[in-house]
Amino acid sequence: MSTPQPPAKGASHAAGDFSYVGIDAILEQMRRKAMKQGFELNIMIVGQSGLGKSTLMNTLFKSKVSRKSVVSTPEERIPKTIEIKSISHDIEEKGVRMKLTVIDTPGFGDHINNENCWQPIMKFINDQYEQYLQEEININRKKRIPDSRVHCCMYFIPPTGHCLRPLDVEFMSRLSKVVNIVPVIAKADTLTLEERDFFKQTIREGLRANGIDVYPQEEFDEDSDDRMINDKIREMIPFAVVGSNQEYQVNGKRLLGRKTKWGTIEVENIAHCEFAHLRDLLIRTHMQNIKDITSSIHYEVYRVRRLNETGAQPNAQPPNTLVNPQPQQANGRSKYIELIYK
């Protein structure tokens, strides 16, 4: 005798409403499938040493997820060349599982001559696209292809209070074409509120002047509702953030913050810094959109280019340099992408 199954969500409607079909039950089916599979998020952090990149990542996910937190050495040397290193963690919250991979780039911007220091990072991002492509075009491909593609690159800008450096412009100009870049002003508590606002405005003007399109990209807004929400985010870019793993007692509450002789800077207080806005963007409101743009825009441009070049032959080696890209259609708008290998 078979065990009776509980009615599907929405089945109770059927008894009293003959017009009810049950299409809305697909949402519950999708939720159950997603909960079983879990989620993946790959974040790259780029910026010179001493800007608090590891601390901010640990603060974002309320755990020690950065590479330095796990494999730190007493005195970590500055590498002679950029060393790209990644570490993965399985995180679970309220039954939702996520594999988080943090990709660090020690050595970036730490040398006297930083010319072309973007190249190893560009190559790494494209290598992940290539790896995914090879898995995708295999005749006997996996049911679920492991996704190592970089979904988001957090670019840390030093709190100089002046303007974007040539290194910042060069990096974001090139990398914004192949990955979602979210710029942040590191250690923003070193600036006064007036200095911070002026610096943010100067950076936005620098981004516009150099044609740098950071996330969320205006041309990928799907409708007027998206445009309205994302316009508010674009007005806040770059996010002026403070990270801390230390808890302090403030008005009877335990809060993450940085203690100074003038008081406590509360990390999650939007009157003190914009950490909460950054966290909401990356995790609570736009995580899936960031992944969707990676897959349907950045990776798709790479995939089309490579298949045109190789004739869809598995394991064909990518060329050293990709030049004169053809325009690709993205949401009805033409987008030129330049993919350059080291």
Automatic annotation (TrEMBL):
Domain Septin-type G span(s) in chain numbering? 37-309
Q: What coarse category fits the chief subcellular location reported for this protein?
A: cytoplasm
CDD domains (alphabetical): CDC_Septin
Q: Which UniProt keywords apply?
A: Cell cycle, Cell division, Cytoplasm, Cytoskeleton, GTP-binding, Nucleotide-binding
Tell me the GO molecular function terms: GTP binding
As for subcellular location, the record says: Cytoplasm, Cytoskeleton
Could you identify this protein by its name?
Septin 9b
